[in-house]
Amino acid sequence: MTQEELFKNLIAHTKEYGFIFPSSDIYDGLSAVYDYGQMGSELKNNIKKYWWDAMVRLNENIVGIDSCIFMHPKIWKASGHVDAFNDPLIDNKDSKKRYRADVLLEDYIAKIEGKIEKEVEKGRKKFGEAFDEAQFRATNPNVLRESKKAEDVRVKMNEALNANDLAALRQLIIDCEIVDPISGTRNWTDVRQFNLMFSTQMGNTSDETGTLYLRPETAQGIFVNFLNVQKSGRMKIPFGIAQIGKAFRNEIVARQFIFRMREFEQMEMQFFVRPGEEMKWFKTWKEKRLAWHLAIGLGKENYRFHDHEKLAHYANAATDIEFNFPFGFKELEGIHSRTDYDLRRHQEFSGRKIQYFDTELNASYTPYDIETSIGVDRMVLAVLSSAYKQEKLENGEERVVMKFHPALAPVKAAVLPLVKKEELTNVAQSIMKELSCDFNCQYEEKDTIGRRYRRQDAIGTPYCITVDFDTLTDGKVTLRDRDTMAQERVDIKELPEIVNKKVSMKRLLEQL
Ligand code: ATP
C-alpha cells in the first residue's frame, strides 16, 4: 500500500471512529476547518495536558495564562503582522488553482532531495558492507550535481524572499520549469503578497476603528501581558509564560487534512532571558523540546531539525522540528529566538515602559525572548499517523489498531461483561464505576467479545477488562493488552494500580 493510500485510510478511520470530522459535515464541509469528535477531543486534551504539565508543572519558572482571541488592533500593527504577515501567492491560469510560490519551490527542492536519497540507496545496495555514505555523498557525480541544483534554487529563493522580490520568485518558478500538478502547464500569473489575517468588526461601527483581527498566533497575548505576569507573579529572569489557544490564518493552500487549517490551536511558550544569553537558551530549548517529542516514542528517526536561512523579521535564530508525516518531513514545531523585538515594539506602540529591573545586574533592560511554538493539530496528526497500524493476525484475520502511547490514548480501559447477564453486568458496572473516577473508560456489552476487542483496538484502548462466570467465584477478570493481545487473569482489586501504571502521564514526564 502506498503512503498516499495509507493516509487516505487513516483519514477515513479517524472519521469512522469519532476522532476527526470535517466541519459542517452535513453542509459538505468547510475548507480546511475540522471538528474533533468524542475520541479526537480526548486525544487532543491528553496532548495538551502533556505539554502543559511539561512546561508549567515541571519548570518552576514557567507559568501559564489564557489570553483572549480578540485584542486591540494596534497589537497587530506593533507585531508587524498587518504589514508583513503575508505569503507570496501565485495562480495557475489554466487550473485556476492558487499556490504559495515558496511552497512550489520547496516541493521542487524536496523532489531533487528525493532523487539524491534514491541514488544513495542504490550505492548502499551496490557496495554492501563496504559502503561509506559520507564519501559517496562527497564524490558521486550524480549526487553532487543534484545537490548543487537544490542548493542553487534554495539560495535564489531565500534571496528573493528576503528582498521581497516577487518578480524574481516568479522567474525562479519559470526557470525551474515547475508545472501545476493539476493542469500540468506553466501558465503562471505574477506573484502577489496576500495577508493571512482574518478581520472582523467589533461593535456597530463599520469604519477602520472597529476592525479587529482574529489572532494569527497566541504569542502576542503573552507579550502584552508580560508586565502583568512578571509583576503579579514576582517572576525573575529567566522565566517563561505558556499558553494554549486558538489561532486563525487565511491559508492560501489548505490541504493535507489537519496539517494546515484555517482555524487551529497552538501551544506556545515565551521564555524571557537576559540580552546576550539568548543563544544559550535557544540551544537549551531545542534540546528540551526534542526530548518532549522523543518521550512519546514515535521514533527518533522521524524527527529532524531544520535551521532557517530566511529569518522572520523578528528573529535572530530559528529552527523547525520537522516530523516525518505520511507526506514527508514537514514542520511540526518552531523554535525562534525573537530578540527583544516584540516587547520593544509594544513599548513603542503602547507608550508604556516595558522593562525588567535585574537586581543581580542592578540594571534595567528589555528582555530577549525564546519562543517554542507547536500546533496542537499537527501534533495530533503526528500521533495519529504513527499510531495507525493494519495488522495480519495469526488466525488470518486483520485488525486495525491505534498504537497510541497509553498516556495519550483517548480511552484507557474498556470494561466488558462476557455476556449480557445480570450477574456479570453488575460486577462489570461496579468495576466501571471505580475506574471511571481516575480514567476515561468505556463500558460495552453488545456484540461478541471478539468484535468488542476489535472496536477497542480501533480507538487504541490499552486495556480490555473482561468479566466472565469465573469472576463470580475467583474475583478475577481477564486483562487483555492492546499491543501484544496477551491475556492474563488479575484480581479485580489490583485493577486501578495496574491501569494507572500503564496509562499515567507520569511515565512521560519522568523522562524529561
Ligand atoms: P508553515 O511554514 O507550515 O506555514 P509557520 O512557520 O507559519 O508554519 P509558525 O508561525 O511558526 O508556523 O507557527 C507555529 C506552529 O503552529 C507551527 O509549527 C505549526 O505546528 C502550527 N501551525 C501554523 N500554521 C498552522 C496551520 N495553518 N494549521 C495548523 N497548524 C499550524
Short description:
This protein has 512 residues and is an alpha+beta fold. Helix content is 40%, strand content 24%.
Report on the structure:
The protein has 512 residues and is of the alpha+beta class. The protein has 3 domains: 1-74 and 196-392, BirA Bifunctional Protein, domain 2 (2-Layer Sandwich); 86-193, Herpes Virus-1; 401-509, 3-Layer(aba) Sandwich (Rossmann fold). The protein is 40% helix and 24% strand. The chain has 18 helices and 23 strands. The strands form 7 sheets. It has a 7-stranded mixed beta sheet. A 5-stranded mixed beta sheet has the order 20-19-21-22-23, sandwiched between helices. A 3-stranded antiparallel beta sheet has the order 5-4-6. Helix 2 (38-57) crosses helix 13, helix 5 packs parallel to helix 8 (166-175) and helix 7 runs antiparallel to helix 8. The chain is globular, with a radius of gyration of 26 Å. It starts with a helix and ends with a helix. The model has no long low-confidence stretch (mean pLDDT 95). The protein binds adenosine-5'-triphosphate.
